[in-house]
Amino acid sequence: xxxxxxxxxxxxxxxxxSVTLTxxxxxxxxxRVGKRGVSAYLERxxxxxxxxxxLDKLIADFDKAHGPADPEAVAAKRARLTxxxxxxxxxx
Length: 92
Fold this sequence. Notes:
single chain; mainly alpha; 0% strand
């Protein structure tokens, strides 16, 4: 593999590595994708985690520059997006 080249997640040549997982995690993955789909599943999962990490950093940078979001405004926008109520104390 070209270690000196920069690639975005999901780009570039593939490279084999050894990964250690708990038996339960591996079993759950294999139940979803079969034995031959584990690598592709882990690749997609790693890409999603990288996206989440990048988003967390972006949010932290925004909060540092502008202060944290107003929880009531967030709840109202969430309710508008999901069609639910904005009330935080809804009974279970």
